[in-house]
Amino acid sequence: MTDADPVRLYRTVRLIRRFEQRAVELVHGGQIVGGIHPYLGQEGIAAGVCAALGVDDVLAGTHRGHGHVLARGADPARMLAELCGRLTGLNSGRGGSMHAADFSIGVLGANAIVGASGAIITGAVWARRRQGHDTVGVSFFGDGAVNEGMLLEAFNLAALWRVPVLFVCENNGYATTMPVAGAVAGSIAGRAAAFGIRAVEVDGQDPEAVRDASAAAVGRMRSGGGPELIEARTYRFDAHHTFEHAVRLDYRPPDEVSRGRARDPVRIQGERLPDADRAAVDAEVEATLDAAVRFALESPEPDPADALTYLYASGLTVRTGGG
Amino acid sequence: MPRLSYRRALTRALADELARDETVFLLGEDVQVGASLVTTGLAKRFGTERVRDTPLSEQAFTSFATGAALAGLRPVIEFQIPSLLFLVFEQIVNHAHKFPLMTGGQCSVPVTYLVPGSGSRTGWAGQHSDHPYSLFAHVGVVTVVPATPADAYGLLVTAIRHDDPVVVFAPAGAMDVRDDVVDLEPVPLGRGRVHRYGDDVTVVAIGHLVHDALAVAEELAGQVSVEVFDPRTLYPFDIDGLTESVARTGRLVVLDDGNRSCGIAAEIIASVVERIRLLAPPRRVTRPDGAVLPFAPALDRAVQPSREQLATAIHLTMKDSS
Ligand SMILES: Cc1ncc(C[n+]2csc(CCOP(=O)(O)OP(=O)(O)O)c2C)c(N)n1
Predict the structure, then answer these.
(1) Which of A36, A176, A177, A231 to mutate to test the pocket of ligand 1 (most atoms within 8 A of CB)?
(2) Which residues of B are less than 8 Å from A314 in CB distance?
(3) How far is the CA of A113 from the centre of ligand 1 (A)?
(4) Nearest Cβ partner for A108 among B57, B59, B70
(5) B103 contacts chain A (CB < 8 A)
């Protein structure tokens, strides 16, 4: 089921890169309120992992979640409309940047509580397998999440009940401003190993390396191997959150940033393509995003009277807050 | 007529729903042997795939249930002690409850959280005796607190069939209540029940306190005519039903086994006085502000709302309006 096409892999990283850059512009222009957590620099991970998945699989992402949703195949226009709080957004403007979800393609929500996705995906995969699907799941999280108890509890449950969940740790070196070395005792792979979960480290800046490691893990999981963990080493090119553009936090040495940016997954994957193919993809992505931006900005905003619509799936209504 | 205990009513509701709907499954700590005595026999009848013991991982298995619900199942979680809800407040409130809205209606999370033995179990002290239903009503999670075996059966069945998360508090003080039960049927959410009609004062009592309120009403019969209103569901609350009762009696006393400040009793009073003018200031009998249940039995009892306090509150309310 693995998508081995280098052009499509390039298209995905390029799409995420340009989506993020356009989104940052829209933050600065005031069209996206609340800001975003840019995925710039980490594109190879979402793209590589999702290239190893089949249509029946499910995933859950994080506060830095645009890449996961796009790599899974969500419509960039509806995704951008969601970031802009429009009615046409994936979540009808109710979720925004940190919660973009598309259940129709198995994206069960981007979760903004650090460490939360692991247990949810474990339950979802377990349930789908009980219903006869050959589902595997992916839980994306950052290095900061490995210190959250709930995630470690989820490791235990998934391993114990042999639920095929690929735990993907995107180790970008920092949890906001806290460096990994100051936060993680032992090692990330070691934590998985403690639960009997097979763990590998992979270069997150190389989309094909991520894809190959993911495909191998997914293959083993489908044949009954239980959960696995991939620690993808990566670097976040931009701020933790766009608020940093205004406040200037000083926590990353400039030479570290330039070294990190030098290993660019978009460039690395792009160099594997003939120039003409790359140029064609770039042009196509650009056109897609131009249309997406137009679609988002021209889409209607939700009616304030509907602010609590969808709160209850059962249709319960709430009393108004006014007198 | 068969006498059914509250505890067995819960068991029967679980069994009936497991039998009726393949997507229902039960998970929790020691549910296979039925350590709480609520799930007795269910693993034998339905198998350990559908009646699953979990490791002690409340946060993970609570969100595991959310995931399973997102994928189309109807999990029921049994929690061994009410204080575990503090541990999983995050998972219930931040995830299960918020998902439908945050995803713009793309999903539903039909999980039932069953808390048998909520409130004081006498001698279980500070970390085992909470009764945190007000917290869930505050955030808007559907919250039910049945008082009788028939309501325990009917509300648990409804909770399991409901498409949103529901917390079912089964008070320790009600677990051994027995009832003559003829028909067991689902009880709708958000519909209160008048257990006893009266003319002078409406007492709203929650969970096991309904039985105390009925006892006090009986004691006072002849002096004061007490109506006993059991909301059964705290969220959504049957404010119409209660308003109708208080509009007749003109007086309101609330009996609530939660802490006073920001508790459900305050909410009930506020909701009523927004709608109608009372003949006397309303009163509430609750645990003290910010209470933690102490161990020694006399201290434990001293913190819980008592029948004496209720009788006093009723008398004072009558006096205030004369
Ligand atoms: C449980 C929890 N704690 C704190 C926060 C605030 N917060 C948001 S992102 C973040 C850092 C997360 O770091 P990491 O998991 O490494 O992911 P990254 O941001 O590097 O992608 C923090 C502390 C949160 N959302 N959830």
Answers:
(1) A176
(2) 108, 162-164
(3) 7
(4) B70
(5) yes
The protein residue with its alpha carbon nearest to ligand 1, atom 3, reads: A114
Extract the tokens encoding B174: 């009600």
Contacts of B142 in chain A (CB under 8 A): 316
- Of all protein residues, the one whose alpha carbon is nearest to atom 25 of ligand 1 is A113
DSSP helix/strand/coil, B202: strand
pTM of the model: 0.95
ipTM above 0.90, yes or no: yes
Across residues A251-263, what is the average pLDDT? 96
Q: Does the annotation mark B128 as catalytic? A: yes
Q: What are phi and psi of A100, to 5 degrees?
A: -55, 130
Q: Residue range B165-181: average pLDDT? A: 96
Examine the pLDDT at B12 and tell me if it is beyond 70.
Answer: yes
Please say whether the dihedral angle defined by the alpha carbons of residues B49, B51, B52 and B58, taken in this order, is positive or negative.
positive
